[in-house]
Amino acid sequence: MRTIRNFVGGKFVELDHGRRFDNVDPATGVTFAEVEEADEATVDQAVTAAWEAAGPWARTPVRERAELLRRVADRIEARFEEFVAAEVADTGKPVALARELDVSRAVANVRAFADVGSTAGQESFLTELPGGRRALNYAVRKPLGVVAVIVPWNLPLLLLTWKVAAALVCGNAVVVKPSELTPSTAALFAEALAEAGLPAGVCNVVHGGGVTGELLTGHPGIDGVTFTGSTATGARVMRAVAPRVRPVSFELGGKNAAIVFDDVDLDEAVTGLSRAVFTNTGQVCLCTERVYVHRRIFDDVAAGLADRARELRLGDPSDEATTTGPLISQLHRQKVLGYFALAEHEGAKVITGGGVPDMGSDLEDGSWIEPTLWTGLTNEDRVVREEVFGPVAALIPFDDENEAIALANDTDYGLAASVWTNDLRRGHRVAQAMNVGMSWVNTWFLRDLRSPFGGMGLSGIGREGGASSLHFYTEPTNVCVQL
Ligand SMILES: NC(=O)C1=CN([C@@H]2O[C@H](COP(=O)(O)OP(=O)(O)OC[C@H]3O[C@@H](n4cnc5c(N)ncnc54)[C@H](O)[C@@H]3O)[C@@H](O)[C@H]2O)C=CC1
Ligand SMILES: O=C(O)/C=C/C=C(\O)C(=O)O
After folding, report:
1. What ipTM was assigned to the predicted interfaces of this complex?
2. Which of 141, 146, 215, 377 could, after both became Cys, cross-link 394 (CB 3.0–4.6 A)?
3. Choice from 179, 227, 286, 450 to test ligand 2 binding pocket (greatest atom count within 8 A of CB)
């Protein structure tokens, strides 16, 4: 069986402590690789390698750093299908989705940050003082140093490249910890870095779960942490870095709302909502789990969305026609099934799904789940308040715009929202009234990588993307020169 190793100081290292964990295909339940777990010494070596590489890398001209990143993007593109296969094996997601979303976005992320980083300007102000004196203020941005990058299992390569490319173009060195459930594309990415000629130690990859994560975030050599994952783990990371007061960037969970007004083109809205609820088996932080629908079209939207759910093709992820894979693990399925039971206990009417599908003998040990829609719930119910992170949504009627806004904003999260209407003014007005980091009108998950991305409330701290990433991954020193 293949062994996935840690990448430290530009090399894959073999550990002799014997601690390994299984890499399981969630579509079949079959273990197909094993992974060496990074212990304290390995994490320390990775941080030390990063620390030693950080100075020379920061002094490398930004256009050279950007050029190197473009070579990394070329290497991912050259090995595109290998990356796709690795992502499919780790996550069980359909091959078409891995191509269209995960690996394409990885290439785009790396190129986007090469561009953003190498074309960024700096702030400057001409300061005019009483008596005609003048001064020039300008800010020089410096990398943080060594950044810990901790990413989850739902979009493993997309999220890894989103953070690593931005950190590197800014002149930081990084230590990345992918999820223990999805280590494969991080290992391939390390190979792509070496092929592109990234100096040893600038990017290191350590494997493991929460224990390895804590060794990394608690390491005194870490100068900043960027994390995507659950709110509970985000809080633990914050506690780990608090004694050394290091900057954090957190993109956490969501309980995202869609608002559907009665002037929509029904077919178009239902198609968009179906993407928003079911993409990646509902395992995207941006996925919609609350759909507020104008009462006049409530039954039509519910019926239309239920039809779309039934049309999804669950099956072998390597089949080009498959639209929907399993959940990431049996453990996660137990959590989602717990919410199915809770929804029924809270009085939900299940309009489609609600259980475990019969997938036939080859896939029966996978963590499959039925796309599920509920009506009959209110904002008081726990399933309407807590993140499920599965292919589920509650549909709730409203009577007017103000009520819809109040219902959508009635949450402790604040990541994303979508508004569906053909009234231009209402679209802008309601999108702006959402207490979220990202608000879409008549679409969902349409991304411009230069835009700020992140959430408020329990959904996170800070923004990444475009200039927001450059701000997080650097510290400005303001210089004031009297003229
Ligand atoms: N993007 C998102 O919004 C995501 C949300 N989730 C939510 O979180 C729930 C739990 O999923 P998990 O895999 O347990 O997410 P998690 O937040 O615990 O895991 C994310 C990453 O953090 C690492 N990690 C875990 N404990 C850590 C610690 N103490 N210090 C540093 N790193 C640590 C994990 O190994 C993984 O790499 C899901 O059911 C879902 O609701 C999960 C993944 C992504
Ligand atoms: O488009 C992006 O940059 C990110 C999308 C999704 C997540 O961050 C997530 O699911 O965690």
Report:
1. 0.96
2. 377
3. 286
